[in-house]
Amino acid sequence: MPLLEATRLTKDYGEVRVVDDVSFVIHRGETLGLVGESGSGKSTIARMVLGLIEPSSGSVSFDGASITGMPQSRLRPLRRRIQPVFQDPYAALNPRMRVLDIVTEPLVIHEGGSRARHRLKASELLRSVGLDDSALPRYPHEFSGGQRQRINIARALALRPEMLVLDEPISALDVSVGAQVVNLLRDLQRDFQLTYLFISHSMPLVRYLSTNIAVLRHGRLVEMGTRDEICDAPRELYTQTLIAATPELRLA
Amino acid sequence: MTPALLEINELSVRFGAAATRPAVAGLSLRIARGEVLGLVGESGSGKSVTSLAILRLLDPAAARVTGSIRFEDRELLTLPEDEMRRLRGSGIAMIFQEPMTALNPVMPIGEQIAEAVRIHQPGLGKRQVRERVIEALNAAAFPRPAERYSDYPHQFSGGQRQRILIAMAVANRPRLLIADEPTTALDVTVQAQILDLLAKLREEFSLSMLFITHDLAVVSQVADRVAVMRHGSLLEEGRCGDVFAHPQHEYTRSLLHAVPTMTTDLERPLATLS
After folding, report:
1. Which of A144, B181, B223, B269 gets the most CB atoms within 10 Å of its CB?
2. Smallest CA–CA separation between A200 and chain B, in Å?
3. What is the CATH number of the domain that holds A240?
4. Global pTM?
5. pLDDT digit string (tens) for B32-46?
6. How many separate domains does chain B show?
7. The complex's ipTM?
8. CB distance A242–B273 less than 8 Å?
């Protein structure tokens, strides 16, 4: 049974259909890369998968249970198991909270427990994303963009989720910092057996991180397959165009 | 050596107290006529400050600029302001990353380009100005320019807006075009079209370019030579082929392998600076 199943997802905003009949499954431990340009509907799909917005029609189920149409109160236990990481690490962190409180807030909300236990857990989480205890008493503005994205990821991991929805997690970062975060995501997936929905506009990045790839355009699924099928033998013209338009380093 | 169109010598830019780290530190660069120089660096490298220093767009109250910037044998750092104003647009033009913020949202796009034409060619009549505008939009491969002359920026896509800015930049036939991350905000298929357009304009107008970007793959496609900056200093420069095949600096090497390509080895981690 797949961990996540999206069936015929459709989202309308007024007259505009931003996601049109998109279906996919993600199996445990795998990464599905959603790749598309602006207006392809990829971020809207992420929000429907997270239960942050309701589809106009179609459904999402997680571990066999439908999360579509479920009241917020019943969504809560599912929320712990599927966590988001968004593009902008500046916007996602509360500027008035210390890192200790940011990282452990999900624990306080979902599990309670003692302050001492939270501190211990925070220290463990920071280590897993390559930071140390010196970050605990500090505020978000004291960190670089890459460090902030690490703090976001630590927070996302606090409740030991099974799945992360990563929406352009490195596109706001400098090249060398982005590489560190990509490597971190690969390590975390291996260490914690995580399942990823990885969303990006970059075909090479999606190729690097994904088991399977879905290509989106104007809200529709253009083509879906294994990484090698999509990257080495794309069937659809749009996929071919997307790959051809990606600038490659010219060494001659 | 071909004569330099732009020659920067020991350029330093400092904001604030003398003790602070300079934004640009002792930078020397040259661009020959007809040449495209790629200026590469991450945030804080000083690449955009350098471009603003060339156009003298840095606030003199905030930035202390020293060294020399020569353009066609004129020293820009000491050029009287009215001559500098004439040079901007006609000698050196610039396009930016975000085409929406560079355009006036309440002015028809044709009028905005016309304004730029009139500043540099005040003798032209109304009809001639309009002709120049259409010509520039055509040069930027902008579809149906005459019909869309009176439309507003929000009626266009990001790629079309960048074409409008490019039309504005080339309308007065500059010799040097400074392009600061001109395709970074665009979708990859649109980026490819804009890069093709810039290559075409380069031929057509024998345009020299300072192409600023964080994207080495883009640089390798558009530039003849590349200069790599970090923390305000020049790390290395040379012909694109040489620098990319034999980077002298550890930082350049890591930048080259930090971004995955369609052929990156999937088993290996991406390169990072230790």
Report:
1. B223
2. 11
3. 3.40.50.300
4. 0.89
5. 999 999 999 998 899
6. 1
7. 0.87
8. no
